[in-house]
Amino acid sequence: MKTAKASSNQAAKGPVTDQKDRKRDKRQKVAKAGDKKPAASKKKAPRKVESSKPGLWARFQAYLREVVYELRKVVWPSRRQTIGSTSVVLVIAILCGLFLGFVDLILSRFVRLLIG
């Protein structure tokens, strides 16, 4: 369908625009051929890198200042909250250990019964 439109458009343009298209194409070809320039053998001088960021020690000090600032914003739990949370963790850890020990005991006895 595109080819039919293209051919009908060319027919509608007539010979005058066709000549203009040919001239434009020739100019483009000449311009493309003229774009090729020989490679420059001139070497560029290395650029000096300006150090805009602070040194290692200054960055480390800034980091420590930010850490202290953030730690001051932390809302620390009270002693009572800490003891309560710790006791919950210990109780759950003990219960998980007892459960896994019980499952291990049952499975090991079952394997012994099968083997022998």
TrEMBL record:
Keyword Glycoprotein tagged: no
Polar residues bias locations: 1-11
Record key words, sorted: Cell membrane, Membrane, Protein transport, Translocation, Transmembrane, Transmembrane helix, Transport
Gene Ontology biological-process entries: intracellular protein transmembrane transport; protein secretion; protein targeting; protein transport by the Sec complex
Cellular localization per UniProt: Cell membrane; Membrane
Bilayer-spanning residue ranges: 88-111
Region (Disordered): 1-53
InterPro entries, A to Z: SecE_bac, SecE_sf, Translocase_SecE/Sec61-g
Membrane topology, from the record: Single-pass membrane protein
Keyword Nucleus: no
Molecular function per GO: protein transmembrane transporter activity
One Gene Ontology term, aspect cellular component: plasma membrane
Physiological role: Essential subunit of the Sec protein translocation channel SecYEG. Clamps together the 2 halves of SecY. May contact the channel plug during translocation.
Complexes and interactors: Component of the Sec protein translocase complex. Heterotrimer consisting of SecY, SecE and SecG subunits. The heterotrimers can form oligomers, although 1 heterotrimer is thought to be able to translocate proteins. Interacts with the ribosome. Interacts with SecDF, and other proteins may be involved. Interacts with SecA.
Family according to the record: Belongs to the SecE/SEC61-gamma family.
Entry protein name: Protein translocase subunit SecE
